[in-house]
Design brief:
This protein is 70% helix and 0% strand. The chain has a domain of 60 residues. The chain is mainly α. It has eleven helices and no strands. Helix 1 packs antiparallel against helix 2, helix 8 runs antiparallel to helix 9 and helix 10 runs antiparallel to helix 11.
Amino acid sequence: MLVERDENERAAELLGQILERQLSPARRDDFASELADLLWKQGRTEEARKLWAELALRHPSEPSRRLAKAKLDASRHLPAGDPVLGYLIDPSASAGWLLRLRESAEQQPGWGLPWYLLGRALYNRGEYELAQRYLQKSLELGLLDVEARAEAMRLQVICLFHLGHWRRAAVRLAAMSMYPGRLADPAWAADWFELLEFAQRQPSCAPRTPPGRKFPDSGR
């Protein structure tokens, strides 16, 4: 533990020095994100939160903004050692981590973020039934960030598609499209409306792979 703490302190000092240089905005934000995580691990909570709050507002990448907002939200709810925040800082899709996330989610009634993270992790593992169930629970409990809500609904559409629930997927997509420019990218939604309409008309011919156009994804 002492060795790890010393390494974190040296890394934080180095990142602080790097941030004093002339950097592009994107590079600066990437280094600032790493620094915030290290500061949190060192127990410098207010400094970490300050950086996450800044990144949540200014980072040019939607997935990076979404991640910063999730870390900020988790840091206000949880102690430093909680699995939810640990997963956000050092993500893992291992069964052990998912179990710890589930336990933490059950200990935080009324908070949607842990269920969103679980749903997202299970989606990445191809566990579409459980993933869409947990994503729905996160939406019912409430996600503060509109970008996280948008991604949860996008992932639900894709999960329902993979499960062959095309009508339910279309209903979810229609709900997203009531908020143009906020929850559904118009081109992405158009691709999916066309696919789901075809699948409902001709189930035996429905494709088993989603449309080619990708939605924004953070990789976490």
